[in-house]
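look at this one:
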Amino acid sequence: MRLIAQFKVLFTKEFGDKVDLIRFAADDAYAKLLLTRASSSNDEALLVITMQLMQARGLMAKSTTEPREADDKINRKYTGRLR
């Protein structure tokens, strides 16, 4: 709840548009529209809250690949002996 309230205040300050909290909570399309718009902001606090809300709503794509370790890259580059 607090996150949505912070989002509303920061979104209104940044864009000058009002946020309908009831519609934001109930309508996924409306929420996605506002969150997409907020993601273009330069305000760091708004961006962090936007990402948290997107993650909570399942709007952020999850990575399907495991991050490669740095050692794997080094091991593939140097396969022979050192001179």
Helices lie at 2-15, 21-26, 28-38, 44-57, 70-77.
